[in-house]
Amino acid sequence: MRTFQEIKDNYRFTEPDIETLKGLLPVVSPHVETIVSDFYNLLLTIPDTAKFLQDAAKLAWLRDQHQQWLLALFQGPYDERYFQRLQRIGHAHVRINLSAHFVYVGMNLIRQRLHRIIEAEVEPRQREAAFRAMEKILDLNLDIIARTYHEEEIRRVFLSQKLDSVLIRFSQRFTFGLNILLVVGLLGLSLGAVALVVQDVIHIVRGNLSQGLVGAMGSVLILWVVIELLDMEIDRVRGGAFKLQLFVGLALVAFIRKVLVTSLASHDLWTEGLYLAGILVCGVIFWLVSRAEAGKP
Known about the structure:
The protein is mainly alpha-helical. It contains twelve helices and no strands.
């Protein structure tokens, strides 16, 4: 986490800004109680924050703390103790499980109220410097409170940022290894598909034309699908997109090959009809998926 001095330097929070804020103290002080009342009236209308404000004694203590914080915006000193106090505010929000969203909501209300006061009570020639100094100190406070809040929240959700990073890197490498293993497996399948084609060619050479030709057609279809799957997986390893249509195409090819094979081995019209129905269903799904992946309505 950055040091308080670094944060002030980044916001260009300088001595003239500090002097301007201190000069605004007499202007803002009479309105502090009203601003704090408006702040808690707003929170009481929001169920997610009102549940923390049901105890009257606790609410009174919170109002007093809030008034002190608001006055400190214009009093300083803006030192390490001021920085640590803002960090404790962030930690307190996390301990009670208050969403960071309401930190921004509350700061927005305070910013609006201070704008109105400066607009109404500061001389025109001093307003620009007053607005600038007020915006800087509010942004600086919001920066520290919200950042401390989020860092504490991360520590509660994860065992540690380092462990989380190690797990993510390991998961990425492990997934990459599995993808490489899948590529190797597809290479083996492609060799098997080539062997099927060679086997069917041998049938043709031996004179079994009908079985050889039909078998070769089915084997070529399988080889084509395996090549497409291998090409898709290589593309995905390189960062490409997953293509669902290839898996639907694989099912479609399997049905087509089954019809070709059963047409030689059997004349059961009912079985062939089921396979043809499967081809029709897979064909429709393949068409729909292809249009969806192409971005067509």
